[in-house]
Amino acid sequence: MKLKSSWIVFIPAFLIVMGIQLFQSVSQTGFFETSIAALFVVGLMLLGVTIIVCADKFAVRDYMPRKNAFSGVMLCLSAVFAAFYGVTGLPSAVEGDIDILGVALSVAAMLSAVVFILLGINTLTGNFTITAAPVMALAPVLMFVLELVKRFVMYTKEAVASAEMYDILYVAFMLVFFFYCASIYAGIPTKYAVKCCFIFGMPAVTLTFVWCIKEFFPVINGTVAFGFNNMLPEFTGLSVSLFAISFLLEMTLNSRLSKGYIDETDTDDYDFSEEEEYFGAIKHRRTSSKPSYEGMVSYATNKQAQSQENADLNSAEHLSDNAEKDQENKFVADVKPEVEQQPEEDGYVPASQQSSSDDAFGNDEDLSWIDKLIKDIEEEQKNNN
To answer: What pLDDT score does 265 carry?
Structure first.
């Protein structure tokens, strides 16, 4: 299984949950019964996506974000809504008794707007300067944390049956999703960041759309007056969810066989940090693979060419040695004294021939210098070779 298989689970579950919520909004049936059915489908989707993502052994761990126009536009739009949310919520938080949680949420929303606009510009241009200050990327996480605490405090004062739980769950899942997403954009090394974005991002998107349909439908029907300030949380959540879908699609298309790819026959790139923590240093072993037919043919061809080259070289050396030996024999023949071949008359032997004959047969020392000269020549030829 691979990351792209998670979309097979997400798309049907998303459509089913949308259908359940539209049916509830149109028919005005009990919210509690329909919400239980929708949450059951979301739970099944979460389980299926988790199994698929965790079964992917080739998912990348360190993903580098890329230029994405739609993600950049959604981040800039989220920055606008977050800025309005922080500015409009600050006066009500300081009126009368100061609401510390409201003030903190307004400040976090304005900081998040700065981060959203910075991430949006980086995504549009492809130049990610947010890595220079990675802590800034966690500002949206702080905003979602404070928003979750605020909504939890509000719903503790209401009955469970009438509580609107979609927004709490949306904020909880979006909180975790944006933590890992921000770590990817900021270059903070976080283990399994890509997988966690899929596991928490898809339920967060589904719950956000369900919550927005529930809130927008009365306004569309005219039963509730439209208020921009009151709808700012929904607008912010919707724009962030659209960015999440775009970012998940980007990772699905561009995260195949990247830095985190692990070859089963080569464990040099595998991360043994967890094993080494308990068992000490692990010696990596490279398993040999069977050579291909093309490789064998290429090896045989190269070996044959090398053997032919060595044979030609040995033949040339042999011819050179024969030429040197012929030259050596010629030199020795030239050194030997020439004996005049004259016919003997009446047993008379010339003095020159008689002396040379005596030297040849009666004196061994006169022959030794020839053998010594030959040995010297042979030793010199061996030293030169």
So the answer is: 38
Q: Which pLDDT score, from 0 to 100, does residue 323 have?
A: 63
Is 11's pLDDT higher than 50? yes
Q: Assess contact for 240 and 78: CB atoms under 8 A.
A: yes
Structural contact between residues 182 and 137, judged by C-beta atoms closer than 8 angstroms: yes
Q: Are 17 and 206 in contact (CB under 8 A)?
A: yes
| Whether the predicted pLDDT of 6 surpasses 50 | yes
* CA separation for the pair 211, 110 (Å, rounded): 23
Instruction: Work out the angle between the directed axes of helices 193-221 and 31-55 (0-180°, nearest 10).
Output: 160
CB 88 within 8 A of CB 35: no
Question: Which neighbouring-strand residues pair with 266?
Answer: 263
Q: Distance between CA atoms of 212 and 266, rounded to whole angstroms?
A: 49
End-to-end distance of the chain based on CA atoms, in angstroms?
A: 67
Q: Spell out the residues 6+ positions from residue 122 whose beta carbon is closer than 8 angstroms to its own.
A: 65, 72, 128, 129, 130, 185
Cβ-proximal residues to 107 (8 Å cutoff; 6+ apart), any chain: 86, 90
Half-sphere exposure of 339 (CA within 13 A, CB side): 13
Inter-axis angle of helices 139-155 and 100-125, nearest 10: 140
CB atoms within 10 A of CB 176: 18
Mean pLDDT of 10-17: 93
pTM reported for the whole predicted model: 0.64
Burial (CB count <10 Å: 0-12, 13-18, 19+), residue 136:
middle
Both tokens of 205, joined, read 């998107």
